[in-house]
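Open question from group meeting: does this chain pack into something compact, or does most of it stay loose? Before anyone orders reagents, we agreed to write out a predicted structure and look at it together. Recording both the input and the output here so the notebook holds the full record.
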Amino acid sequence: MNCNRKKRTDRNHVIYQLTCVETGETYIGLTVMRGQAIKKSVNTRFQQHCYRAENQNKDWSLCTALRTHANWMGSVLEVVRGKVAAHSRERELIFIHNPKLNTQ
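Structure tokens returned:
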């Protein structure tokens, strides 16, 4: 029996935006949607960003902003099926909206 399963490429992905309530600065990101829970997927990804900011001492714009400001709002921009399509659409939205915190 072969236990090597092919990775799925047809999953739903959530493109989200994080907004610092205090400054209005934004970040656009992408996460895999877990089951039907869109909001939970985004919240889990936000917690990962917070963990990285606090524990990995990154000097990326988002990490610096997370360490500096406490009030954040997350919103879902789109749900896209397929990894390639989702990454492509995320890049398009970053180009269109030019979020300040997407720089490293």
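Observations to bring back to the group:
The chain is about 40% helix and 25% strand.
Helices lie at 38-55, 61-68, 83-97.
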